[in-house]
Design goal:
Elements (H helix, E strand, L loop, with lengths): L2 H51 L4 H13 L4 H8 L5 E4 L7 H16 L3 E4 L17 H9 L14 H17 L10 H17 L14 H13 L16 H14 L4 H8 L8
Parallel strand pairs: 1-2
């Protein structure tokens, strides 16, 4: 290719990249500011209603507590108001603590440690309720490192007593007799997915409805992998977990319809709409 032609091509590609970047940035800016404006208006109305009723919600309590404790320079006044001197702080289910909750509590904790007290919290990151009320599981380890706290893990689960285990074993024994329980060894990941599909198809043959079948996964990545496998075999399913909202097929269909309404000239959106479950061919 001649050098002059190569330079013109490079300039054209660079111009297209810049134009596309500017276009997508402006589009993103438009949608962000539009939804932000909608949120601000709704929040303003909600705030006015709370003020008129002299009410506060859970978020207000957190913010007021943080504002009060972070601006407190004399903790003797705080101890006087609560009628006690706080030196020891114990928190259960710490994995469900939010950033703002910890930021507020940290002032009390640090003051207690400064006076020779102690801070003790327990929980399990794997049992987090997935951002319930803003819970951040990473705080479990972050706080320990930041405050130089010791870590202890339980070697045994004291929730497993003979009565409970006997009940569970009885249930599974009955399930085995009814043929709804099986232990299968698979050579690899792909064979495991195929085996799950086969088990579901066997249950359907025995008259079991799909809405009565559940598959438990250890990780959310396994949920997405299993969902794709089910789609390949035309097995409808509904997932629960931390999978991103926009990855859900029903949400993707709705977003595609919105894109089609905004840009009807784009054939890819029309194709996505025609392939969606919303269109049923006779």
């Amino acid at each position: 290719m001649p050098q002059e032609t190569a330079q013109r091509l490079a300039h054209t590609v660079s111009f297209i990249q810049s134009a596309l970047t500017a276009y997508f940035f402006s589009q993103m800016k438009y949608y962000v500011f539009t939804w932000l404006d909608i949120y601000m208006r709704i929040n303003s109305i909600y705030t006015d209603i709370k003020r008129a009723r002299r009410s506060v919600d859970f978020t207000d309590i957190e913010e007021y507590a943080l504002r009060f404790l972070s601006g407190l320079s004399d903790f003797d006044y705080f101890h006087y108001r609560i009628g006690s001197d706080v030196k020891y702080v114990l928190i259960d289910e710490f994995q469900d603590t939010s950033e703002i909750q910890w930021e507020a509590l940290s002032h009390i904790v640090r003051e207690g440690l400064r006076k020779g007290g102690n801070f003790f919290y327990v929980g399990d990151e794997k049992q987090s309720i997935y951002r319930w009320r803003g819970g951040e599981p990473h705080l479990f380890e972050t706080v320990r490192l930041r405050l130089h706290l010791l870590k202890r893990s339980l070697r045994f689960s004291y929730r497993q007593n003979p009565v409970l285990l006997g009940f569970v074993n009885t249930i599974f024994q009955n399930m085995t007799e009814q043929g709804y329980f099986a232990v299968v060894e698979c050579a690899n990941r792909e064979s495991l997915l195929d085996e799950i599909v086969q088990q579901i198809q066997n249950l359907k043959t025995e008259g079991i409805e799909l809405h009565d079948i559940a598959v438990l996964c250890r990780k959310n990545s396994e949920i997405e992998e299993l969902e794709k496998h089910f789609m390949a075999y035309h097995i409808p399913c509904r997932t629960e977990g931390k999978s991103k909202l926009l990855r859900d097929y029903s949400v993707m269909d709705v977003v595609n319809i919105m894109n089609l309404a905004v840009s009807p000239e784009e054939s890819i959106y029309l194709g996505g709409f025609l392939r969606s479950p919303l269109v049923v061919y006779p």
